[in-house]
């Protein structure tokens, strides 16, 4: 998002409080994935590592594995297919479009550099964190 773009005012105090509580890293889904990786015998990852393009949420630099843990609302989960907010659509529609495009670019850049990229959705983690990382674990075991 452009630095000069300002988010619209919240439609209610409770919505404002909820939006302010959102954070960019160390989210509950991200912590669940990290915990599951450790429990399954795969510690040694880096968090939000700036040395690699796209700053994956979790990465194994030596194995060139990047994991993005996406929130369903912010990254527009295809499984959940959430509706856009009803108010301030002139803000939200381009915001979500930019988020999706940025995600695609990050993945493409990493893959072009030889990285294996995994995207894990918040809803998958909520269902079962161990199942959500199944493909990651299979790939780690094979390397």
Q: What spatial order of strands do you see in the largest sheet?
A: 1-2-3-4
**What's the architecture, going by CATH?**
3-Layer(aba) Sandwich
- Global Rg: 16 Å
CATH topology: Endonuclease, Chain A
Output the CATH homologous superfamily: VSR Endonuclease
Describe the largest sheet: 4 strands, mixed
Percent in helix: 40-55%
Structural class based on helices, strands and sheet pairing: alpha+beta
Number of helices: 7
Number of strands: 4
What is the number of domains? 1
Distance between the termini: 37 Å
State the name of the first-level CATH class: Alpha Beta
Strand content: 5-15%
Average of per-residue pLDDT values: 88
Order of helices and strands: HHEEEHHEHHH
Description of the structure:
The chain is of the alpha+beta class. It has a single domain, classed as VSR Endonuclease (Endonuclease, Chain A, 3-Layer(aba) Sandwich), CATH 3.40.960.10. Helices cover 48% and strands 12% of the residues. It is built from 7 helices and 4 strands, in the order ααβββααβααα. A 4-stranded mixed beta sheet has the order 1-2-3-4, with helices on both faces. The mean pLDDT is 88.
């Amino acid at each position: 998002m452009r630095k000069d773009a300002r988010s619209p005012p919240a439609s209610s105090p409770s919505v404002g409080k909820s939006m302010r509580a959102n954070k960019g890293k160390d989210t509950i889904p991200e912590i669940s994935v990290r915990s599951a990786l450790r429990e399954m015998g795969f510690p040694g990852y880096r968090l939000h590592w700036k040395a690699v393009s796209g700053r994956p949420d979790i990465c194994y630099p030596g194995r060139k594995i990047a994991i993005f843990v996406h929130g369903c609302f912010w990254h527009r989960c295809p499984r959940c297919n959430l509706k856009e907010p009803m108010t301030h659509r002139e803000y939200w529609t381009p915001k979500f479009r930019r988020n999706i495009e940025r995600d695609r670019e990050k993945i493409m850049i990493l893959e072009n550099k030889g990285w294996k990229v995994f995207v894990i959705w918040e809803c998958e983690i909520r269902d079962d964190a161990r199942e959500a990382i199944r493909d990651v674990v299979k790939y780690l075991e094979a390397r």
